[in-house]
Amino acid sequence: MSSTVTSSFRRSHDHFEPQDTDPQTQRRLRGQLEQIDYTAFASNTAVIAQVLGKSDGGKFQRLAVAAALARSRWVAEAVAITEAGSAITPEQTTRLATLRAAYEELAEVYEAMRRMVERGYLTYSSSMVTEGGNVVTR
Fold first, then answer.
1. pTM
2. Which of 43, 61, 95, 106 reaches 20 to 30 Å from 25, CA-CA?
3. Does 7 fall in a domain?
């Protein structure tokens, strides 16, 4: 069984690999598996579109800004804690872990939504324009 490492978790691939060498049996099985994959695709497309609607540059920008803010809060807190030069308390460690978890969750959501667009589950319309080097959402 192989596994793929993504940014924060492992996803294992345990798809059945037929041992039967009969070409007709293999074609039939591949056809069945394609139907299964299409069913999953159609289900994802329908459900995600119903829940999220369409995606656009504004949604991605808001997620990216939220992740950037969470990351900067996490790092700023760590810098502030270490300014005193004393040992970090368990409460401070818990606070850092909470801030890190918030950042990681937002980063994962951003990546998940990007994968939804990449796989065709979510439609994307570009509504971001640059004006004078600044990104403006319309």
1. 0.70
2. 43
3. no
